[in-house]
Amino acid sequence: MHFKRFFDFKPNNNNNIFIIYNNGKVIYDTDQKTFLLDESFLVYENTSSKIGIAIKDNSNIYAVDVTETKFPLKDQGYNSLVEYDLRHMMSMLNENDLNLVGRANQLLHWLKSNKHCGYCGKVKIHDEKEGALFCSCNNVMTYPTISPCVLCLIKKDNHILLARNAMFPDGLYSVLAGFIETSETAEQTLQREVEEEVGLKVKNIKYFGSQSWPFPSQLMIGYECEYDSGEINVDGIEIVDAKWFSIDDLPRTPPNSTLSGRLINSYIEGHLKP
């Protein structure tokens, strides 16, 4: 599969395949067990957001937002179609399919949030060579924006630090996380976020891995590090609780489909008794 952005939207092309979003949810065919739908499912009129995102097996894959058409699933007789939240689909799809449906969400968000020029208010034009949007009033290119976010697993003796965000479901704990700010390196962000959120200093920062996180357009960058000094002191606003846990007494944590879950499970696997 070749990822590509293109805007030459041609109805009635037998090689068109669609990922259709409606009110922020992915339309899924339960009979065929796929989110890749053919042309018969699509309402073209007033489809405000559409973009080609990839080429697979000589077929063009488009991401389309039909929210403004009030896409009538049941009324059209498509009883096999349901709408799934993208987070729900993380447990259903393999990594390649998740990247594809996530890419669709990110680029549709980019189109919607950058439709008009911030200087003159006109609708922006697509520059196919650059893969960007621009306005003739200033010729400034607008590219898809990724928001990088750092995750960190802090280790101390045979324990790891896990925290509860105020927005988490009951009982869920995870690693600390924070967005990279202007002029910061990822490592500087990690140290700042840890000190701001739980009052600790860390050392021996090591890169673990990364994950695209299309909610709506983040890149998660994971690190492992070691406790250096300080006592846990949560900010009480973003973080409401943080504790040291052993692998024998872990709370509910994120699934392995997430980078935070993989960070935690990697530590567990490395400390299981043979």
Tag the structure with descriptive keywords.
globular; 6-stranded mixed beta sheet; alpha+beta; 274 residues
Secondary-structure element string: EEEEEEHHEEEEEEHEEEH
Looking at how many chains there are and whether they match, the oligomeric state comes to: single chain
**CATH architecture call of the largest domain:** Alpha-Beta Complex
What CATH first level of the largest domain would be assigned? Alpha Beta
Biggest beta sheet attributes: 6 strands, mixed
Structural class: alpha+beta
Mean pLDDT: 89
What gross morphology would you assign? globular
Radius of gyration: 22 Å
Total count of helical runs of at least 4 residues = 4
Tally of extended strands? 15
Compute the number of structural domains: 2
Helix content: 10-25%
Percent in strands: 35-45%
Main β-sheet, spatial strand arrangement? 1-4-5-2-3-6
Low-confidence stretches: none
Task: Give a structural overview.
- The protein is 18% helix and 35% strand.
- The chain is α+β, with helices and mostly antiparallel strands and 274 residues long.
- The protein folds into two domains: 2-113, Nucleoside Triphosphate Pyrophosphohydrolase; 147-271, Alpha-Beta Complex (Nucleoside Triphosphate Pyrophosphohydrolase), CATH 3.90.79.
- The longest helix has 19 residues, at 95-113.
